[in-house]
Write a structure and sequence with these properties.
Layout lengths: L18 H12 L4 E6 L5 H9 L2 H7 L3 E5 L6 H12 L8 H10 L3 E6 L2 H4 L2 H15 L4 E8 L22 H12 L5 H11 L3 H14 L1 H11 L14 H9 L2 H4 L3 H9 L8 H6 L7 H10 L4 E2 L5 E2 L2 H10 L4 H21 L3 H4 L2 H5 L2 H11 L7 H19 L19 H13 L9 H11 L6 H18 L3 H18 L2 H18 L2 H18 L2 H17 L3 H17 L6 H8 L1
Parallel strand pairs: 1-4, 2-3, 3-4
Antiparallel strand pairs: 5-6
Helix pairs in contact: 4-5, 8-10, 9-10, 9-11, 10-11, 14-16, 18-21, 18-22, 21-22, 22-23, 23-24, 23-25, 25-26, 25-27, 26-27, 27-28, 27-29, 28-29, 29-30
Length: 596
């Protein structure tokens, strides 16, 4: 073996956060002759982990001079790989060294063979079968320990991999990520800025290393400023994928497994603008124009370009997301489909909120909050083809946020400047009514002028339910903002009258509850209780659990003011249980009940 080209790579000097995986691998060595696959996304530290194993004292003592580390990225066929291994073993060159390699390992003391970056050979369908056959032959050698590193989450077939399988490598935990950064860039940096940089890297070791080296020379503040302008390009200079993040990501995207399923890259580009990821139910119900969407998901997971988090939502790591948004943004047709999905979901919630039917959408919407914001931000542009849909969706989103989370979306404030270009009077009315309702969140100079606009717009279409919403919003404005109880009562009576005329039981109950709240402020508790009792009955008829809870809450408050605390407590508990039934225990009504 004096002609051997084998030279072992050095032990990694900076190595944090992989102690558990290292321990698991060493345990497998202690239980026999292992066959181990180290899997994970590009830049996750697979090679570093293999190098760390290579230099562990127990491994060095056991295999002495029989440790071989073969980088596979220069080979393109099985024969080239076999000859490369043969070169590391010191074998004489030949056309096919397969048998000579097997004989070498069989006739020599126990050996450890590490095949690094094997995906370059295993990925192409044309060479996969022959590579798997070679691995099968190698693992047939009794005293040969085999370890491979590969991008992705799939292990090659035809090998009895040692159990328990090593888990696919994940990003580092925060402490390990900080240690890695400090080892490279020293400790004189603001912890807040360091954590911001780590969030950009999503704690992926390779990205941390590149950003830390840059911070060491330029400082954290400048790195953050440059990232804001240049994104992943800031750490993508040169032609070595170890030093170029974009090249590393591009290599993963060129995987034959991705290329063989064309729509998988389109799905990946869409996921890049969705920080919350997508659940299977979202992938299916959104009806994205992508064939075999679950097959696309499998391809992304198998190459580790995407992963499923603990809630089984398909996500993409930050560095890959930034790269895709800059170089491979999703097609408008995909975002448009997702907008329709979110709009339908939010509209359904608005129409059925407070019922058991509407409760089914709450968790689904909450799991997509940032996704919805990003998709709406995309559509809120002048002359955008889906501007009208986006504005409706923002209004629905606003109502959802207030009802379920006691917060408001900042998107409402972006719409006012877009209204002049809209000819849809129904949409304008809908938005203006929502603006009046939200006056306390987004103060407007003259709400009554907006109300006059709405009245004029109503002349062009007939929507009794929207008129009921208008009267309810105006009643709230007079009651809560102007403290004009006469005006508030007048609007309530208009609402109730219209609701009775049109048979709108739900709006009728809303009007009665609003009237009851006004009577509480007036101190006329008996009238408030009568209105609330009637509202409760109407809500029960329409299946409006939220409306019923509000009415019961009013009654509880009246009993409290009258000094009947036992009745008040009993009704408060009832109101709380109704909110729980409809899944809306996180909004204003719940807080009011808790304080009663």
């Amino acid at each position: 073996s004096s002609n051997s080209i084998s030279m072992l790579p050095s032990e990694p000097k900076i190595f944090h956060g992989r102690e558990s995986e290292l321990s698991d691998i060493l345990h497998l060595f202690n239980t026999g002759i292992p066959r181990i696959a180290i899997l994970g996304a590009g830049g996750m530290g697979k090679t570093s982990l293999a190098r760390a194993v290579l230099h562990q004292p127990d491994i060095t003592a056991r295999y002495v001079q029989n440790r071989f580390f073969v980088a596979c990225n220069s080979a393109t066929t099985k024969l080239e790989l076999v000859n490369l291994i043969g070169g590391h073993l010191g074998l004489k060159p030949a056309q096919n060294l397969t048998q000579a390699v097997l004989q070498y390992f069989s006739n020599n003391p126990p050996s450890l063979l590490i095949l690094d970056e094997l995906e370059t050979l295993w990925e192409p369908a044309s060479s996969r079968a022959s590579i798997e056959e070679l691995l099968s032959l190698l693992t047939g050698v009794e005293d040969l320990a085999l370890m491979i590193t590969m991008r992705g989450a799939d292990k090659p077939a035809k090998v009895l991999w040692t159990r328990p399988f090593l888990q696919v490598l994940q990003p580092l935990d925060q402490e390990a990520a900080r240690h890695t950064f400090v080892d490279i860039a020293d400790s004189g940096h603001s912890l807040e800025e360091v954590d911001q940089i780590l969030s950009l890297a999503d704690n992926v070791p390779h990205a941390i290393s590149l950003l830390a080296h840059l911070a060491d020379t330029e400082g954290c503040s400048n790195v953050l400023f440059r990232w804001d302008k240049e994104k992943t390009s800031v750490i993508s200079e040169g032609f070595d994928k170890r030093l170029n993040l974009n090249m590393s990501i591009s290599l993963s995207l060129s995987s034959p497994r991705i290329q063989s399923i064309p729509h998988s890259q389109e799905l990946l580009s869409l996921l890049a603008m969705l920080p919350d990821g997508l659940a299977d139910v979202d992938l299916i119900q959104s009806e994205l124009p992508l064939e075999n969407i679950l097959k696309c998901k499998t391809a992304l997971e198998s190459t580790s370009l995407a992963y499923s988090d603990e809630h089984k939502r398909l996500k993409v790591l930050m560095p890959i997301r930034e790269y895709l948004q800059q170089y491979k943004p999703p097609g408008d047709h995909l975002i448009r489909s997702l907008l329709k999905y979110f709009q339908d979901m939010l509209k359904f919630h608005v129409e059925y909120h407070g019922t058991q039917l509407g409760s089914s959408t709450i968790t689904q919407v909450k799991s997509n909050l940032t996704n919805i914001h990003n998709v709406l931000q995309w559509g809120l542009k002048q002359n955008h083809p889906v501007l009208s849909n986006s504005i409706y969706c923002v209004c629905y989103f606003s109502q959802f946020s207030e009802l379920n989370m006691q917060v408001q979306t900042s998107l409402m404030g972006q719409i006012q400047d877009l209204l002049p270009q809209l000819n849809d009077h129904h949409l304008k009315s809908y938005f203006l009514i929502e603006s009046i309702r939200l006056w306390q969140y987004y103060p407007i100079s003259d709400p009554e002028a907006l109300a006059s606009q709405v009245v004029e717009l109503f002349k062009d279409f007939d929507d009794p339910d929207l008129k009921c919403r208008f009267y309810l919003s105006m009643s709230g404005y007079y009651h809560n903002i102007k403290n004009d109880l006469v005006g508030a009562v007048s609007m309530c009576k208009r609402l109730i009258s219209l609701a009775i005329q049109t048979g709108n039981t739900r709006r009728y109950s809303h009007g009665l509850s609003k009237l009851a709240w006004i009577n509480i402020q007036l101190g006329t508790y008996s009238e408030a209780q009568m209105d609330a009792c009637k509202s409760q009955k109407l809500s029960r008829v329409s299946g409006d659990l939220y409306g019923e809870a509000d009415a019961v809450h009013i009654q509880a408050l009246c009993w409290k003011e009258l000094g009947h605390y036992k009745q008040s407590l009993s009704l408060s508990i009832r109101a709380q249980s109704l909110l729980n039934l409809c899944g809306m225990a996180g909004g204003d009504t719940n807080c009011g009940i808790m304080s009663t």
